[in-house]
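Appendix B. Chain record.
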Amino acid sequence: MSARSKGKIVIAEEGELEHNPEEAAFRMWLRVFVTIRWITILGILAATLVASRLLHIGFPTTAAYAICLFLVLCNLALLYQSRRLRKMPTSQAIHQARIWGTVHLLLDLAAFTVLLHFTGGIENPFIFYFVLHIIGASIILHYMAVYLLATSVIVLVALLVGLEYGGVIPHVNLVGFADPALYREGSYVLAVLLVLGSALFAATYMATSVAGELRKSQRALA
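Structure tokens predicted for this chain:
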């Protein structure tokens, strides 16, 4: 093999090293995202069955099952999209992974907000699980985009709570679990929104700081 050919191989290998760590991180994130989503679907199904059958808490279970079906379809689509990444060049794979990850994060955010409405709204303790969306988003999104996402969560929750409080949309009470008038207690609603907001922005700051340092280390190693 000639020296010129060897030089081309070395350059190609160095180019792959420059991108492979970041590409591998995005692919790993997609795999973890898919796994966490399956766990979430099973968790919603289990919580729905336990709450309705064992604890006798009244709420529209059909809506919870419909959201689970929606998440199953989203996860199957993400699996298909993840397999397509293997056939793409490194730079294109990273770009597509970021786009697909963002879209699925937004879909999950919308689905969880709808689920929250049908399972008690502000009186549902799982409202603080929005923090997990922020931690996941910090891995693939720019830090400003993660802050915008955290702000969007607060706006969505405040809008949901405000519409229920004002009677624009009906409030679904968790019968047998929470006081049916709890969603109209101003001090309680304000306290939950403040705690949720502080938790979201604290998680955003910590997660984006760690993710940023990891990206710098990856580029330095490359």
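Further analysis of this model is presented in Appendix C.
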